[in-house]
Amino acid sequence: xxxxxxxxxxxxxxxxxxDSITKPVVVPDRPTVYFTWTPEPTCxxxxxxxxxxxxxxxxxxxxxxxxxxxxxxPTPPPHTYGASGTYNVELSVIDHKGCTQxxxxxxxxxxxxxxxxxxxxxxxxxxxxxxxDLSNGxxxxxxxxxxxxxxxxxxxMQNPLHIYSQAGNFNxxxxxxTFNGCVGNISKSIYVSAYPDVxxxxxxxxCHQDSILFIDNTNANGTQLNSWFWDFGxxxxxxxxxxxxxxxxxxxxxxxxxxxxxxxxxxxxxxxVIIHPNPQAGFVSDTACxxxxx
Length: 294
Fold this sequence. Notes:
Layout: E1 2-12, E2 15-25, E3 34-38, E4 42-43, E5 49-53, E6 58-64, E7 70-71, E8 85-95, E9 100-110, E10 117-119, E11 128-133, E12 142-148, E13 154-155, E14 161-163, E15 168-178, E16 183-192, E17 200-202, E18 211-216, E19 225-231, E20 237-238, E21 244-246, E22 252-261, E23 266-274
Parallel strand pairs: 4-9
Antiparallel strand pairs: 1-2, 3-5, 6-7, 6-8, 8-9, 10-11, 11-14, 12-13, 12-15, 15-16, 17-18, 18-21, 19-20, 19-22, 22-23
């Protein structure tokens, strides 16, 4: 409260006359104003809720979010920024006495991390599969990895190993969290293939210089076979599914068949075979006459 005095002087016919008046003048304090926000930190793409407060009766509120948008509510609707960066958010108020006040806080909006990963191929049943994190925190270190392999198993390692116990389609999901709490995630569909059960037979006796048909008897286990490689054990081979081969030597040999499916999962079978010599036909006879018993 201030005492304000007004003194006036007049000139009346050469006489100076004065008068004065004093009145108390109340100069009110400016209103207090504060605001908070959540979450902290703010991550790109996530809504931020602002809360304004004051210790005085406020008649007008004005928010400037520093991105070309504003609000006139004490608690504005959640606000989502369209780009990362630092924004100087200002809250201005007018109280019931017409006094104004404002406050500014810098709000940092962090880039959302980019989640990505790779995995070894082929993905075969029972194999140890390698999952490699390829995520980018855009300058902010990644502090947490949450893997879900789609078969009920999880991992918190950055680059985990996983063995699938059954074949089929699985959705692998990776969620990453940076040190400032921003989250990114990605999901990829993979197929885990069973190995083929390789087997083969031949349709004839294994005799020297015979044409022997080898028949692939592989069980594809629900997939489609892709290629065959036969090693006949005598330095020759074939990529046919059911080849014909002639052995030019008598020997005990190992025949190997390698088969893979369309997913790249391969297995093999080795069988030992004996290539038998052909019998030598021959006979002798005496000179005989018609009607003689021989």
